[in-house]
Write a structure and sequence with these properties.
The protein has 7 helices and 6 strands. Strands 1, 2, 3, 4, 5 and 6 form a 6-stranded parallel β-sheet that branches. Helix 1 links the parallel strand 1 and strand 2. It is globular, with a radius of gyration of 16 Å. The chain has about 190 residues and is an alpha/beta fold. The longest helix has 20 residues. It binds flavin mononucleotide.
């Protein structure tokens, strides 16, 4: 069976980020599913705030090209997204916006249209960042034309959700994440 490649990232670069913990756990679980896994940190791709004038003057920065190429090299993408004021972080939105403006011969959003996305969230709040997931789904599906699988996981009270091995303490949530990742892999295989 062909081996899909999955890219994993977090919308936070905060030290001790729950979403980075969730991304690391997803990468670990994906590795057990016998797929190629790459986990990146947006810290390694610093970008200025998107500005059309800057884009018109000098084009997207090298890191926008690098991020787009990184996405292109994978069939599926898992994003762990924090919730900031009922939406996604400016860090994540900025990266998505810059990638969408890297103009090549293909449709600018071909990189989004050609792969499948899975969204999960973690928050110290009681709703687990659910509104961030909804906002990210809207951005990726309606804004970028991406396919986002319906399965999603939101982890409330994230400061208590991970055990000493950085696994999820709640079995039902851990199983939900596994089912989401299996579906991501299945659909990624179809995108190859
Ligand atoms: C500017 C800002 C806005 C926030 N708004 C929300 C919110 O609307 N809902 C929520 O559950 N948590 C909110 N939080 C809390 C974050 O979700 C929480 O700090 C979370 O741990 C951030 O993700 P991280 O641990 O991956 O960095 C907010 C935090 C900041 C800094």
């Amino acid at each position: 069976m062909p081996t899909p490649k999955i890219l994993v990232m977090s919308g936070s670069i905060r030290i001790g980020s729950y979403n980075s913990k969730l991304a690391a756990l997803a990468a670990k679980e994906l590795a057990l599913l016998d797929v190629g896994v790459t986990r990146i940190s947006l810290q390694d791709y610093p970008l200025p705030i998107y500005d059309s004038d800057l884009d018109a003057r000098s084009g997207p920065p090298a890191n926008a090209f690098k991020l787009k190429q990184m996405m292109q090299a994978h069939h599926g993408v898992f994003i762990a997204s924090p919730e900031y004021n009922a939406s996604i972080t400016p860090l994540l939105k900025n990266a998505i916006d810059w990638i969408s403006q890297v103009r090549e011969r293909t449709d600018t959003n071909a990189v989004y249209k050609g792969r499948v996305f899975a969204i999960s969230t973690a928050s110290s709040g009681s709703e687990g960042g659910l509104r961030s997931a909804m906002a990210l789904r809207q951005i990726l599906e309606l804004g970028c034309g991406a396919l986002v699988i319906p399965e999603q996981v939101s982890i409330p009270l994230a400061d208590e959700a991970f055990d000493e091995r950085d696994s999820l303490s709640d079995l039902a949530t851990a199983n939900l994440l596994r089912r989401q990742l299996m579906r991501l892999v299945d659909i990624s295989r179809l995108m190859m």
